Every structure is written in C-alpha cells, then in structure tokens.
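Running low. Got one?
___
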Amino acid sequence: MGRHNYNPTHKRSARAARRPAFWCLASISPAALLVAALAPATRAQTQAPPCCTQGAPQTPQPPRTPPPPRSPGSAPRVCIDPGHGGADPGASGFGHNEKDIVLDVGLRLAQLLAADTADTAGGGAWEVLLTRADDTYVSLYQRVAAANAWPADTFVSLHTNAFNSSAATGIETYSYQEGTNSAALRDGIQAQMTAAWPLPDRGSKTANWYVLRETWMPATLSELGFITSPVDVAYLTSPEERQLAARAHLFALQAYHGFPVYLPDSGTRTYCTAKPNSLGCTPAMAFSGTPTLGGADDFQLSATALMARQNGMLFFGFAAAETPFAGGTLCIAPPLSRTAPRSTGGSPPPACDGTFTFEFSQALMEAEGLAPGATIFAQIWYRDPYHGDATGVGMTDAVAFTLAP
C-alpha cells in the first residue's frame, strides 16, 4: 500500500522539546534484555539476510503487555538496528562484510538525528536507541526486547542484500504487513533511498521476519543494496553514499512523524581561547556559508583584529585540543595541515585591524580526501613581532565544523 494508508493520528503536530537522548543496548535494564536461544534460521528468500528470516523461536517470547502510553508531543523514540555484528558478519562480498557497512550507516543516522534535535530551525527532536554501537553480537531477541521495553516509537533495521549471482542489484524495504503504519514508514524509506542512490527500485515488500513481527511499534527493514553486486557495493562502501543513505532514512522518519523534511545544520561553532595580541586586541574567528561537498560552494572562515600587514596561515586538523603553546592556546591536535601564508592587510603597523579570509572550498575538501561526516577543526596563526613574550606568534580562537554531503 502507498502513503495514503498512513494514519494521521500517528503524527506529532507539536514540535517536542529538544532534549537529545542516546542509548546503547547496555543502558536498558537487565530485566529488559533477557537472553534466549534462537531457533535455527530458515531463509524465506535466497537473498534475505540470515539474521532476519527466523520464524517462531522455540523460547518464550517477550511479554505481550503493551507499554503505557507516552505523553502527547514528546520526542519520538527511534530504535536504530544495525544488523549482525561480532561473530556474525552477515553477508559478504568483494572483501566487505554487511555488519560493518550497516553499523556505519546506523551511526551516521544517529548523528543526523542528534543534529536535528540540536538544530531548532527545522526538522524534529528525537530520542535514539542503537541496538549496537560497535562490533558486538546482539541476538534478535535482545534487539526486539530492548525496543519493546524502552519503548520505541519506530524501529528501523539496516541490512545489505546478497544473492548467488552478481547480477542481482537494487534497493528494497520491508514491513511485516501491508496497510499499516509500518508499511507507511517503509514506503517513505524506499522512496527516499531510491532518490538518494540511482540503483534499481525493487519496491516495498512484506516479510515474516522476527524483528518486524515481534516489535510492538511500526518497524521496517532496509535492504540498502546487494553486497554481492559490483555496482551496489560501490555505494555501500563509499562514505559519501553511506551519508546519503543515512540522510534518506532521516528524511523518511521526519515525514512519517509529521516533521518538515529538513537537513539539520552542521553544527559549525567557535571554541577555544584566542591569544590577545601585542596591542591588546583579541582576534576572533567567524564563518559563513555551509561546509558541504555537494551544495553551494560558499563556506568561508575568517578572522578579525589581527596585527595589520603581517602574514597569517590557516591550520586545520581532525581533533580539538586546548594545549598551551607560544603564549597562547593550540586549539587543534596534530597532525595538522596548513594553507599558504597570506597578508592580513589593514593600516600601517602597528595596528590591529588586519583580517584573514579563507575559502574552504569543495576543491580543497576533495584534494584533502575529506568526506561527508568528517569534523574539521581550524585556527588562524599570524605574525605579531611586537608581542612582549618574544614568540612573534599570534593565535585566534578556533572553528569546528562537520562536512555535509
């Protein structure tokens, strides 16, 4: 069934208070994580993920007592379920394991939901549960029990497909039944995924899989692509494409829960402490535009109140620091990259009206091998030959930003 079967009473019309909450499976009470042996798997389809095709396990199932109703308008709770893990690699192809691919996509989705919660300009507010956040084996029973005990409002399981022929290719998304809220969410994910990746649309489908059948909330299972296909695996193993897959799931969740479809802000911010220069001015960094590899190429970093007519350089790296250095603070942890020196301009010295502007262009991002989801930390250093500490080095505060697709 299509989107027209979606029950509008499931939507949340009021924006919930933005209180990000993240849980890993270990944070749920032990009573909710009873361990039970699983029945032997029986593959419903040749290309189906082994961990999801189990029928009725021989052990007692989670109690069928519905959880108490949650407060209207509260932040939707999303359980993200990266399939497989630990000793269970899932499907494999071309030297890659399913468990690694879906974990990365799941973590990226969790980060996007966190960013959406923090960004009050649009989108929604969320609470998130990851059934696993590292390479750990978690049984199907544990995954379902955790989602039911929390309780989640939606359950999104992530997998890759496989087949004994490399010709099989494309994207498909599953729910337990048609004509349900699960099917509505499933259709939204399928539409967003096929818009994000130009792979064949294998359609929305149903399956009698444990994580779809035994969860109390609307539940879906995404087959992102075939790990056994040389075409699909190029998307499954690309950091940029994984980010687009995570974003597709974010957009589907936003639409399903009644929020505007919105890509949250990257969270660009200033941090650390600038070193006052020899004239007593405190330099300050600023930014404009959006740090993205695919949108408008307009992201700039700048600084004001620098010593005039001196050379300055932008340093950047991949971790923050606040280390005393040269009478100021080194705000980036090594290893560092730097730009070529350029003049700060301004009035004849001594003056502190110098400025520094640097276009952190997409060409530079690509040349540095940067991918969506990478967080960059940047600081400007400049000459200050009049400083009493004799180091001759001026240092700004710093900017942290995360690259969007």
Remarks:
- The domain at 3-256 is CATH 3.40.630.40 (Aminopeptidase).
- DSSP finds seven helices and 20 strands in the chain.
